[in-house]
Amino acid sequence: MSEVAQTSAGGLRRVSFKWLPKLPLLPSLIFLVILFVWPVAQLLSRSFIGADGGLSLEHYERLFGTTLYIQILGRTFQLAGWTTLLCLLFGYPVAYIISKAAPTSRRVILIIVLMPFWTSVLVRTLAWMVILGRRGVINRTAESFGLIDDPFELMFGSGAVLTGMTHALLPLAVLTMLSVMQNIDNNLESAAATLGARGGQTFWRVYFPLSLPGVAAAGLLVFVSALGFFVTPILLGSPQEGVIAQVIIFQMEQALNWGFAGAVAIMLLVMTLITFAIFNKLIGMSTLSGDVPQGTAKRRNTSVRGQRLLNGLGWASAFIGDMLDRVSGRAGRSGSYRPRRKVITAVIAVLIIIFLAVPTFFLVPISFSENQFIEWPPRGFTLQWYNEYASSPIWQQATIRSLVVGILTAILSLFVGLPAAFVLARQQIFGKQAVMGFLILPMIMPHIIVAIGLFYLFSLVGLVGTTLGLVFGHTIFAMPYVIITIMATLRNYDTRLDQASWTLGASPLTTFRRITMPLIMTGVLTSFIFAFVKSFDELTVALFIAGGRSTTLPRQLWSETLFNITPTLAAVSTVMIVLVTAIILVTELLNRRKPS
Amino acid sequence: MTRTQVPGARNFQNLPINQEDKMNSKRIKGLSRRSTLKLLATTGAAVALPSLWQRTDAADTLVISDAGGTYSTAFKKAFYEPFSKETGVTVVQVARRNAPLAEIKAMVETKNYQWDMTGSIQSDSIPKLREGNLLEKLDLSGSDIAAIPDNMKSDLFLGNSVITFLLGYRTDRFKTDRPQNFADIWETKKFPGRRAMRNLARDMIEVALRADGVPGGDEIYKVLATPAGWSRAFAKLDAIKPEVKVWYSQSTESTQLLQTGEVDMIPLFNARAQVAVDAGAPVGFTWKNAFYGVEGWAIPKGTPKADLARKFVKWAANPQRQAEAAAILTNGPCNPNALQFIDKKRVELLPTFPENFKVQTPLNDDFWAANADQANQRFSEWLLKK
Predict the structure, then answer these.
(1) How much is the pTM?
(2) What is the ipTM of this complex?
């Protein structure tokens, strides 16, 4: 179906200037080349300079002179891989439920799913310590029921790290997949059912393949984001969960050995690109970019194999459903499998949604506790921590500034990223995979490297210490999320709708505004949220580029923890959640009042 | 509008005008998608114009960075405000990350000084900064500075306070018989309980050798002068490794671990342990055989305000000022004369209180700067081994 659309669209394009439709890609490339590639390359090139100031490979000799760094890199990739797997497995049913839910319950679920986004990574990690710790919620509860004598060792291991990282990245996975599922036509499933497909078959052979671009995009985003994580592994893990970002940061900040840090960073970059290439080979970026598979016979074989796998899964699940029916004696009752499948999915989804909300629900009581620390159980009731937030102009200024910078970052990321996503999703361009690989690089680059690189660049043009500089800095990290999310959304977009609109006399602008935008709105909103959150929780660039004079929320949270982790942090997180939830609800109400 | 430019630094005073020109010329051309974007970006720049070149300070302004949080509160009250009152110089306080080495290097190399000096920088950062020629020389004249011990000051750094790394423990776990020093971490039969250690080579090697009977101070570095000495330290660490439940990287974490009872014994900084005690947690600590580092003032090389910064540093050695900071931060003033200005109850909690201070030994920053890479790598490899 989409093959037809593609060819005919291609036919139309050939008449006009070939390069014109590809132009919108340029701003994003120019943006990244000037603000990311150039400054970062200058910094990383120090890895080829020896102690004597001449060209040298000494940093690389040190890097590969031991297996230490390769081991850490391996563990980083392993951790990211497992996190991705868990996020996709857990995220899929949730995204599925949301895409099928009625508008009201849908909003409620979305608000809960988004909750981890509004608490800073530090606070979230502390919440997990409260839950998993030796005297944490789980152990105390188990003890009070007399279930255990010795507390479980839940913290400081790969289990805790995976829990923390999955929790942090699950919203990303859910929202990315949701923005694709949103555009899957429900009629297709009905059609499959009409043609005699059982529930399992409809899902695996019709729905699942259509949702694959979302899975691929979510997998890519989660994996690459996980590579850059370091707070969660440091706080919840053991040294076995050491990550490569930590090594780079240590060399940049403590050892002041930028050459060696550069060498480690280049190793990380190269390995990420190799992984990306393998991902591309195995799954094919075409799931994401929407290119018609036209490669070698071998590639076609892969897709045939994939098709067979899905067919198999379809038969298998239909068969299992059938067996279950017979066991429960419901065989023959028509349609009985459909509700059951729904119930199971719903139960799984609810469990995962509870998992997402749990840390927040522990933070709320702690924020009213008279304890001086973030600890469980809360004692007494006090508004002291809220007072500290409300009575401090510094906290309020930090909140406002973070909100403003976040919104500006999201707007800029959309303005630059959206056109690029359109080109990448719809046009045949030379070296598209390479461009895609290039666009995701900022996601893995430790922020300290970008921050220092930008400091040198911005020093030349007087952007250090400015809001604009900070927004530029944050957009570097935010834009890849926008591009990938919107690309995935566009994958299931039927371009014939645009053509129909043109045929009916609408100008391209009107078509974009009245047809395209409403259809991809979920994707646009999702990427707006991603970009905003990316900026909202960013600390390093904010401290380096914005200077320390006007504070941001993460910086304020971080200074607050210098000596003493007080429940103020929990109070601030609660305020953020309430604020964001209120904004979402008010927007909804206003939209509803508008006559359609 | 801008402050005096450093010779050799680029002058950007005319930048805002250029930006406006660019913006206008863009407006004249048609509105393609690209130019719309550019227009947007430049409009953004125009909106941000007042802050485009933020350092609009007059000659009598000094920008000082510190580690933020409690440091900011204490320094503001003890140093910044009194200095402003006395000299008429406006002090602008900014926050920086914990170890500002990268900031200083970036500022000096670009001659773009976001701040003129920094407080609460740790003395272990100084050798690296000296190697890169990244700091200004200080004025060490005057009786206040003369009172500060020699190992707490150098031509590039003036100590402000002492921070001690010591053994903290839970008093509800060890009720009567309490751990006495680092060696008791290894006494797993006498002091059963969960242990946390710091994920930092230097501190763990210092702790291990002390526990192994080396008195501390220079004796440590005599032992570490030979490869056998390093092996001795790691052999000692081998013995405790299976008992260590947590290896913490962030100092912030250490308070949380001890305070919530996640572990029963943990080497950590005195101020961190004190926070837990102050919050009413059953926590104790011992000064015996502990080691200390120094945090203080330094000035990035080439800042146009270097002279004023030097004046500030000299002024900040004043014992009464240091005493006032120690009333908020549980760090020991470097100037011994400061102790008489601190109330009796408080002074006993400080690292430089004579009773506490005489049982500690200092870290040798130069030794560790020279050996850090090697030590860190070996330590990381050792940690990764199961």
Answers:
(1) 0.83
(2) 0.81
